[in-house]
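Predict fold of CPXCG motif-containing cysteine-rich protein; 67 aa.
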Amino acid sequence: MHKYSNQSVSCPHCGHIIRIPLDASAGSQEFYDDCSICCNPIHLTMEVDELHKTINLFVDADDEQIF
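Predicted 3D structure, encoded as tokens:
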């Protein structure tokens, strides 16, 4: 599995498509990145599945709550 990649995601605030660099070498991660258009924070959760050699990326707005 490639440890470094780029992923295109849609900003949950303005809908603009931005490129997010991903580094899977440290395993699963949770992080924030700012939209380059509207400057709002984007919450990203990256889950690395070594067994199936996949990366799942979940994107949501900073103000959304998951219970």
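Strands lie at 4-10, 17-23, 29-34, 41-49, 54-61.
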